[in-house]
Specification:
By secondary structure, the protein is of the alpha/beta class. About 40% of the residues lie in helices and about 20% in strands. It folds into 3 domains: about 140 residues, OB fold (Dihydrolipoamide Acetyltransferase, E2P) (Beta Barrel); about 280 residues, inorganic pyrophosphatase (n-terminal core) (Alpha-Beta Complex), CATH 3.90.1640; about 110 residues, Diaminopimelate Epimerase, Chain A, domain 1 (Roll), CATH 3.10.310.30. The chain has a 5-stranded parallel beta sheet, sandwiched between helices. The chain has a 5-stranded mixed beta sheet with strand order 7-8-9-11-10, sandwiched between helices. The longest helix is centred in the middle third of the chain and has 34 residues.
Length: about 575
C-alpha cells in the first residue's frame, strides 16, 4: 500500500524570533509537538527528575503506603501479582528490588498465559491465601478483576491494585486502587504505564525516610540488602532503567512524565545495578561503551527478550533474571531468554504466513478477524501488529482451543478497538486493553456473529482517514541541513517514541549518483545521492526490489531520517530512507 506523505506546515515566524538560539529544524520540531512557550521548551529539551509529580497525588497512594509499612513492620507476608508482558515484569521487578533494598523478601505470582490468561484469578488468590499472605499488590493488572477483589475482601486479604488500564465495568472493591484511568483519580498524567505506577508506589514507600532509616539502623530487626551499606536518599533512581524498559515496551506516549522516566532510565541503564539485566544486555551484543542506549535498544532489543519468556514458556523466567544477584545464574537465565526469543521469532514467522493466507480471503473487509487452530497465544499479538502495519487495517488474531478462542487486537488511526470489542461483548468471555491494543477471549462457535458485530461497529466508526497509511514528515531539509550539527540538534529531542516520533524529513529532487543492493538476500538498497555540491550516503531497508527500475541520474524525492555515520574514523551524516519516489 502506497503511503500518503504529509509535510507539516512551516512554523510561524514569531516562533523563530522567540527561540533565536535554536536552529531552524529544532524550532520546527518544537512547533510540530505543540511546544510553543520558552518554559515548556526548556522542560522538554532539558527534563529534570525533580519535575516528576508527587506519588501522593494518586487518590489511593497514602492509604496504600501506610498499609505496606504496617505489613513491613509486622513482618506480614506480601505477594506481588503481575501480568506477563515486559511492562508488568519490569513493574514486578521494581517492587521486588524496592522491598529487597529494605530487607523484606516478598512472594510473587505471575499467571500462566496459556492456562490462566490475563488478569487476577481467584484460583491463584486461593493458593496465595493458603500461604498465609494478607497483603497482595498487583502491578499492571487488577482494575477489571472485580471478582478477585471481592474474593480478597471476603477472605481477609488486603488488595492494593496498581494499574493503568481503562475501567470497563464497576470499580473493584480493593483496599486501594492506584490507577490514573480511575475517573475519581486526579493524577495529572494519564499516560503513565504499569511499571510507571509501580515506580510511583516505590517512591511513596521510600519517601517515608524515618521508617527507612529505622530499618538501616536495625531498629526493627530487619536486615537491609547486603549490597547496601547505608541508607541512600533517592535510591529509587536506580530503578529507572527497569521503568524505561517497561514504558517503551508498552508503546505509551513519551511526553510528560514518561519522557522524564525514560530519559533518566537510559542514563541509569549505562551503570545498571541489576546483575541479570547486565547479563541480558551483554548476551544481546549491547556495548554501551561504544553506543549510548536509546529507545530502539529498549523496545527492539531488551523488551522482546523479556517478553519471550511469557510468550513461549513462563514470565517467571524473565522476572527471575531481573532480580537474580548471582552472576552465573543470571548468565544462565539470560541465555535461556535469548534462546526463547529466537524460537519466538520462528513461531511468529510461521503463524504470520498462515494468517496472511486467511487474510487474503477477507481482504475486501475493513477489519481483519482471523482464527487458527495451532497459533500459539504468545505470538498472536505480534502477528496482529505485523498485519496491522502491513495492511493498515484493524486486525484481530486468535487461537482456537476447544470451545474458546483467545486473541489480540491492534488498531489504526483513531479507531478505538476496546470500544469495538465492547460493542461485540455479548460473544466475549472477557476482554480489556487500550484504544490501540487489546486482548480478548471469544466463544469460538460465535466467530461469524462476532465478526459481523465488529464490522457493524467499524461501518459507523472507522473512517477513510483511519485507513490511510500516512507518513508524517516534520520539515523539508536542504543541502545545508545535511551536517552533524543538525544531527546533534535532533538528538536533543531523544528519547523518541509515541507522541515524540523519530523525525522523518522530506528531501526533494536529489540525484542518484550510485546504488547497489546489500544484506541477506540483497533485500536492502545502499545509495549515493547529491544535490547541488552536497553528496550524501543513504540506506533504504527492504527497498532492494527498487534496483530493478532505478537508474544512475534519476531524480528522487525521499522521506528519510538523519543518522550518524562513522566510517574509518570519519564522522558524517547519512540518510535512512523510509520511502522513496522516482520523479
Amino acid at each position: 500500500m502506497s503511503k500518503i506523505w504529509k509535510l507539516k506546515p512551516d512554523a510561524p515566524k514569531e516562533l523563530f524570533e522567540r527561540f533565536p538560539e535554536l536552529d531552524r529544524i529544532s524550532v520546527q520540531l518544537l512547533n510540530n509537538r505543540g511546544i510553543l512557550g520558552e518554559a515548556e521548551a526548556e522542560k522538554f529539551l532539558n527534563p529534570e527528575y525533580g519535575d516528576l509529580h508527587s506519588p501522593f497525588l494518586f487518590l489511593g497512594m497514602e492509604k496504600a503506603v501506610e498499609r505496606i509499612w504496617q505489613a513491613i513492620e509486622d513482618k506480614e507476608q506480601i505477594c506481588i501479582y503481575s501480568d506477563y508482558d515486559a511492562d508488568a515484569v519490569t513493574a514486578n521487578a521494581v517492587l521486588q528490588q524496592t522491598f529487597r533494598y529494605l530487607g523484606v523478601e516478598t512472594g510473587s505470582y505471575i499467571p500462566d498465559r496459556f492456562n490462566e490468561g490475563y488478569g487476577v484469578n481467584i484460583e491463584a488468590l486461593s493458593k496465595i491465601k493458603d500461604k498465609g499472605v494478607k497483603l497482595v499488590i498487583t502491578v499492571d493488572c487488577g482494575t477489571n478483576s472485580t471478582d478477585a477483589a471481592d474474593f480478597c475482601l471476603g477472605n481477609g486479604i488486603d488488595l492494593i491494585i496498581t494499574d493503568h488500564h481503562e475501567i470497563i465495568g464497576q470499580e473493584p472493591k480493593a483496599f486501594a486502587l492506584i490507577n490514573p484511568k480511575n475517573p475519581k483519580d486526579k493524577y495529572p498524567f494519564m499516560d503513565i504505564t504499569g511499571v510507571g505506577v509501580a515506580f510511583k508506589l516505590a517512591q511513596g514507600i521510600l519517601s517515608k525516610t524515618e521508617k527507612v532509616e529505622k530499618i538501616f539502623g536495625s531498629g526493627n530487626g530487619l536486615k537491609p540488602s547486603a549490597t547496601e551499606k547505608k541508607y541512600t536518599p533517592g535510591y529509587e533512581k536506580w530503578l529507572l532503567d527497569l521503568v524505561a524498559i517497561g514504558t517503551v515496551a508498552d508503546c505509551h506516549s513519551l511526553l510528560g512524565e514518561n519522557r522524564i522516566l525514560v530519559k533518566y532510565g537510559l542514563k541509569v541503564l549505562l551503570k545498571s545495578k541489576w546483575t541479570g539485566l547486565k547479563a541480558l544486555c551483554r548476551i544481546a551484543g549491547l556495548d554501551f561503551s561504544e553506543k549510548l542506549a536509546d529507545t530502539y535498544t529498549l523496545g527492539f532489543v531488551i523488551a522482546p527478550r523479556l517478553n519471550a519468556a511469557g510468550r513461549i514458556k513462563h514470565a517467571n523466567l524473565a522476572l527471575d533474571m531481573l532480580i537474580e544477584q548471582d552472576p552465573q545464574k543470571a548468565q544462565d537465565l539470560a541465555l535461556q531468554l535469548e534462546s526463547l526469543n529466537k524460537h519466538r521469532q520462528d513461531l511468529t514467522e510461521q503463524v504470520l504466513s498462515e494468517a496472511k493466507e486467511k487474510a487474503a480471503l477477507v481482504m475486501d473487509r475493513n477489519v481483519l478477524v482471523l482464527m487458527g487452530e495451532n497459533w500459539p497465544k504468545g505470538v498472536v499479538g505480534l502477528v496482529a501488529g505485523r498485519l496491522t502495519e502491513e495492511y493498515h487495517k484493524p486486525v484481530l488474531v486468535m487461537e482456537r482451543q476447544g470451545g474458546e478462542a483467545t486473541g489480540s487486537a491492534r488498531s489504526v488511526g483513531e479507531f478505538n478497538i476496546v470500544e469495538a470489542l465492547k460493542h461485540a461483548s455479548e460473544y466475549l468471555v472477557r476482554f480489556g486493553g487500550h484504544k490501540q491494543a487489546a486482548g480478548f477471549t471469544l466463544a469460538a462457535d460465535r466467530f461469524e456473529e462476532f465478526y459481523q458485530k465488529i464490522l457493524e461497529y467499524a461501518d459507523k466508526n472507522l473512517t477513510e482517514g483511519d485507513l490511510q497509511k500516512k507518513l508524517e514528515l516534520e520539515a523539508e531539509i536542504f543541502e545545508d541541513d545535511l551536517a552533524l550539527d543538525t544531527y546533534h540538534a535532533i538528538f536533543e529531542f531523544e528519547p523518541f517514541g509515541v507522541g515524540n516520533p523519530r523525525p522523518k524529513f522530506l528531501a526533494s529532487d536529489f540525484k542518484v549518483t550510485g546504488f547497489r543492493t546489500v544484506g541477506n538476500g540483497q533485500k536492502h538498497l545502499q545509495m549515493q545521492l547529491s544535490k547541488g555540491k552536497k553528496f550524501v550516503s543513504a540506506i533504504a531497508f527492504n527497498f532492494g526490489w527498487l534496483a530493478k527500475t532505478l537508474k544512475i541520474g534519476d531524480n528522487v524525492d525521499i522521506a528519510a531520517e538523519l543518522i550518524e555515520d562513522g566510517w574509518n574514523g570519519r564522522q558524517d551524516v547519512k540518510l535512512r530512507i523510509v520511502d522513496i519516489k522516482i520523479n
